[in-house]
Amino acid sequence: MAALDPALLPLKRYADFTGRSTRTELVSFLFLIAIVSFTLVFAASVIHAALGLVIRVLLALALILPWWAVVVRRFHDQGRSGWWVLAPLLLGGGATLTPDNFSAWAVLQLLAAIAVWTLLLWKPDESENRYGPNPRLEESLTDR
User: Fold this and answer.
1) Distance between CA atoms of 86 and 89, rounded to whole angstroms?
2) How many domains are there within the chain?
3) pLDDT tens for residues 65-95?
4) DSSP letters along 15-74, please?
5) Measuring CA to CA, how many Å separate 96 from each of 30, 43, 105, 115, 138?
6) How close are the terminal C-alpha atoms of the chain, in Å?
7) Structural domain range at position 136
8) Which residue has the higher pLDDT, 47 or 112?
9) CA atoms within 13 A on the CB side of 36
10) What is the distance between the alpha carbons of residues 65 and 45, in angstroms, rounded to a whole number?
11) Distance, CA of 89 to CA of 93 (rounded, Å)
């Protein structure tokens, strides 16, 4: 397995909301997005400020489906429904927590987001579950 394989796997499974994904796949994809986004937006902003904004919007639109798909598959890896991805949106309703806007809804959304991130990094089901076989076991079998 090459070093970038886990980071690129969500792009290969672009809008695949079925099956399971590992923590390594999720975290490496997050780092890849962060590095590529920062580099492209910084380079574009040096050329022109508006170009940086355009690049940021295009990247967000291009990566929203694979991001949500890998998050849903990560919940599946623990035997949970992928609908957990909506918890911060449903509980907080899109509120933002700022010093000027310190509302209960914003705090609730923040707590929901922390809970979702904790669940995303939670230990997976070791055996097969209703969403498929353990991807770590499949990787070890294909490495032989």
Assistant:
1) 5
2) 1
3) 999 999 999 999 999 999 888 877 776 555 5
4) T--SS---HHHHHHHHHHHHHHHHHHHHHHHHH-HHHHHHHHHHHHHHHHHHHHHHHHHH
5) 22, 29, 8, 16, 40
6) 11
7) 5-142
8) 47
9) 14
10) 25
11) 5
Q: What is the pLDDT of residue 142?
A: 54
pLDDT at 111 over 50: yes
Q: Which residue has the higher pLDDT, 113 or 63?
A: 63
Cα separation, 42 vs 37, whole angstroms: 8
One-letter amino acid at 105 equals W
pLDDT at 64 over 50: yes
Q: How many residues does the chain have?
A: 144
The 8-class DSSP code of residue 101 comes to: B
What is the model's pTM? Answer: 0.81
